[in-house]
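About this split. The held-out portion is used to measure sequence recovery: a designer receives only the structure tokens and must propose an amino acid at every position. Recovery is the fraction of positions where the proposal matches the reference. Here is one held-out target exactly as it appears in the evaluation file.
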């Protein structure tokens, strides 16, 4: 669809990439304000804010249908990013309140798989619409159809999505109490309407925060926003590109289920599965860069593998939601990590210069470097959290308080909105 936009609106590849960058710029400029609102308002409002952003996103997507020039396209893409800014962080917080640590990877995968399903559905939809000769294939139907679906589903979720376990309408009173009790073992606390500056400071001084940021930043550069440009440069026609983009999303789907499922049943293997996705992405980038230009199918396989790192996203979410205690600290870490995600998405398209088409040798070399960089903070975070857990185990062995009594005391502390650093029995997952 990008090629249709370039021809009809009058943009070039660089402007199209700028439009994609504007989405992430909008996301990056607004998340901290949204996180501040989430902290100050009751948690009930965080659910409403998340759904409100989703509804506005759908409305802006429909407005895109009336854009006739590059300025309009860039403006709508920017505000799409603003609208998107609270959705993923809001869902991450909701998951942490309803599920135990061991259950969170698959639950994060459940909402994240919406991206992969939308990629497949969108590719097929655009391919079909592209064969309708009476209208510009990119101009109205995709934006109006997908935007209206988003608006309708957002409105439905105002009534379907619970704000927190205590008022989940699909549970009776007894079940609501059970949900609250079963997640107490997470020791990550519950909601708090108070902005606690010591937790903000703790988030900024916690080395785990910056491990997460480095992983997110370096892994977000090859997220695939420029895949259609690459496929077109490899030699595929515009319509074939629309169909071929479906396969990488199917690969992502399989890997997301495999990695999150594996990490759920194999204890403390999340970082291992993440590194597997980084390795697959490395292989894909190397294939596209090193194979000769006539071997377009071999290079296409490489583009499919490049999307493997997307499977690390729900695992990274589960590391954040399962390892950070204290509501203010959690939202702060979430905001910083999400800014890193947006920064990676902004950087990625800028590494591909139109003068290097179709090989994009510098861009793929940069992606290979970024993916290689992912391994170091991933391993560093794993060994650091293992070390902290071992230190706490030794400390518990030396104390006189019985284990069960100690856990009860720590559970009470967790309900008082204490951070993971303040709760001695807190154990990290990795």
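Reference sequence for scoring:
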């Amino acid at each position: 669809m990008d090629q249709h936009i370039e021809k009809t609106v009058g943009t070039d590849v660089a402007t199209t990439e700028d439009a994609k960058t504007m989405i992430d710029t909008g996301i990056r400029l607004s998340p901290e304000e949204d996180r501040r609102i989430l902290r100050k308002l009751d948690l009930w409002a965080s659910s409403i804010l998340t759904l409100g952003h989703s509804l506005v996103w759908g409305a802006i997507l429909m407005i895109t249908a009336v854009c006739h020039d590059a300025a309009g396209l860039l403006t709508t893409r920017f505000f799409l990013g603003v609208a998107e800014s609270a959705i993923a962080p809001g869902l991450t917080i909701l998951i942490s309140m309803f599920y135990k640590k061991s259950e969170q990877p698959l639950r994060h995968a459940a909402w994240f798989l919406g991206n992969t399903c939308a990629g497949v559905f969108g590719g097929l939809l655009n391919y079909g619409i592209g064969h309708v000769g009476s209208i510009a294939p990119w101009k109205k139907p995709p934006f109006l159809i997908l935007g209206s679906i988003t608006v309708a589903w957002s409105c439905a979720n105002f009534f379907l999505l619970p704000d927190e376990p205590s008022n989940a309408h699909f549970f009776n009173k007894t079940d609501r109490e059970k949900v609250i009790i079963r997640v107490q073992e997470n020791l990550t606390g519950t909601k708090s309407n108070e902005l606690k500056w010591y937790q903000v400071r703790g988030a900024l001084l916690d080395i785990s925060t910056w491990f997460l940021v480095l992983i997110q930043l370096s892994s977000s550069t090859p997220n695939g926003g420029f895949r259609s440009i690459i496929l077109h440069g490899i030699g595929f026609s515009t319509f074939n590109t629309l169909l071929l983009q479906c396969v990488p999303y199917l690969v992502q789907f399989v890997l997301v289920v495999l990695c999150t499922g594996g990490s759920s049943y194999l204890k403390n293997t999340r970082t291992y599965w993440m590194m597997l996705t980084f390795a697959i992405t490395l292989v894909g980038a190397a294939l596209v860069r090193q194979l000769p230009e006539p071997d377009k199918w071999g290079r296409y396989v490489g583009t499919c593998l490049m999307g493997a790192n997307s499977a690390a996203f729900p695992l990274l979410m589960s590391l954040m939601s399962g390892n950070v205690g204290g509501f203010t600290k959690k939202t702060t870490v979430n905001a910083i990590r999400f800014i890193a995600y947006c920064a990676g998405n902004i950087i990625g398209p800028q590494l591909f210069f139109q003068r290097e088409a179709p090989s994009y040798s510098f861009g793929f070399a940069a992606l290979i470097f970024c993916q290689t960089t992912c391994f170091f903070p991933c391993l560093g975070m794993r060994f650091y959290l293992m070390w902290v857990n071992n230190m706490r185990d030794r400390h518990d062995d030396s104390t006189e308080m019985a284990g069960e009594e100690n856990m009860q005391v720590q559970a009470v502390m967790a309900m008082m909105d204490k951070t993971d650093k303040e709760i001695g029995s807190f154990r990290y997952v990795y």
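Annotator remark: Confidence is low (pLDDT under 50) at residues 7-11, 37-45.
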